[in-house]
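Ticket #4471: structure output looks truncated?

Reporter: J.K.
Steps to reproduce: submitted the chain below (548 residues) through the standard prediction queue, then opened the result file.
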Amino acid sequence: MPGAGLLGKPGAGASIRGCRPWPGQWRRRFVGDAAPAPAVKNEREGAQAEIHADHLDSPRVRIRCLIMGACRIRRTGKHMNSSQRRAWRAVDLLLTATLIVAVAMSSLSGAAFALGTASCTARPNGETGSEVHGGVETRITWEGQAAEDESVKAISLSFPEGTSFEVENARFTILQGADLMTRVNAECEFAAEGQSAVCTLAQPADAGSYFRIEIYGVVFPVGGGDMELTGTYELADGTTKAIDDIDAIPVAVTSPTQQLANYLEEQPWVQAWNSNKFLRLFLNPPILVSSFPVVLGGFFMAIAIVFVAFPLAIPVGLMFSFMRMSKLRILRALGSLYVNVVRGTPVFLQIYIAFFGLPLAGIKIPPFIMGVIVLALNSAAYQCEIFRAGIQSINKGQFEAARSLGMTGAQTMMFVIIPQTIRRVLPTMTSEFILLYKDTSMLAAVGIMEIVLYAKTIVASTGSITPYIVAAVFYLVLTIPLANLVGRLEERLAGNDTGAARKNKKRAVKEAKRALNPGVVAAKLEEPPAPAGSDDDRAVSPERLNSM
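Returned output as attached by the reporter:
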């Protein structure tokens, strides 16, 4: 077909326009020795080379013309119009772009035929989560696969400056099988050369093998950051190439407490202490130090829950106490039902019903708010009985006196009864605050990160019970001072109730001790008698009696 596509077979008389005349070496290189020499003719537009249609059957000629982009096909003796030229130019550009993409993909596929990194990870060494901390020992695991035509003899992994590692326990494994689950322990020798760990195989591995290298005792700098590893590998023929695509390992900054824990682990007395199984499990000094800041976060969470739930429970409990003392039978029944149900069921069961039952009913509440609501409603039932007992302990004469002054029932309760009730129930309310604070530990069962759950996470990662001891310390830090405060409040309230009798008793005891002192007795005997008209004379004269 005349004027066929560039990569198709053009018609007779087709020529390539715009190319310089081809010398013999170019003709032999691109067209072949069997092809006749092209006819050359000079025109006003410049030199032009014509190649017979048979010459374009050679792929090399077509590719050569396509890459140069300076040639276009025209029919001999007939010129194309402008629309045909634009169409052919568009076809040429499309084919050129296709060829460029094909060449780029072929180059990329050729670059893939080298030892590539499949993964490079570090074992988490923090107390919680999957973080890798600097200054703490970890393990590096590198995996990679060689090209189909590469037989690897040695692999070298280089660590960043300031990183220490050990090669005594390093392992080299070849993974085989479709799922890479078959392990072959190849004979190799590890050596440390500066910041590099070099693995030299006794025999070059088979081409296309999948490798795994595990290096233990790796300690990154305490400053943290993205730690970038580099690597090289040596082939059986002695060629050395670089290992590409090794992802950086993010390393977290080591906290001062973790640095202190690392220091304690190296101390001889700590190692002797931990040689005892009981002490190592319950009072491990490094874990005691490192778990303190982690559990501290749970302590703040527990405090936040209590400080929100306890004030919310006070008005609810006071309201139910009024219902329990109401003259209306329906209000008394509702108040009694609530108090008996809440106080008669475990708070753990109430938490489970709220956290797992309400979502099934379509009620979704954030965990923190849900925990606050459950504990507040539970504490309100106990505070209801505390307020009821405090109100009923007030003498009925207080009610009668207030009503005789013209105060209404609400005014009497607000300004006379409630202030006296608060003073009497304050120690009991403090005890209820302590109980509510300890009940926050049950929220760990539903995933709220408070003291117990943080401690449980550390125990799971370390295998030591020491974090639970740290959690107990955080509970005691708050409960012991509050318990002492309750005792002092009770003593003070008891003193106010029997204040005069106690003061008289103390004064009598003090005077009795003073009277038994020999020096005081002798001074009393040596004192002269008081004159008759003095103020110390206890006798009352008739004149003074008349003046009174």
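Triage note (M.O.): checked the attachment and the full token line is present. The longest strand covers residues 210-219.
Status: closed, working as intended.
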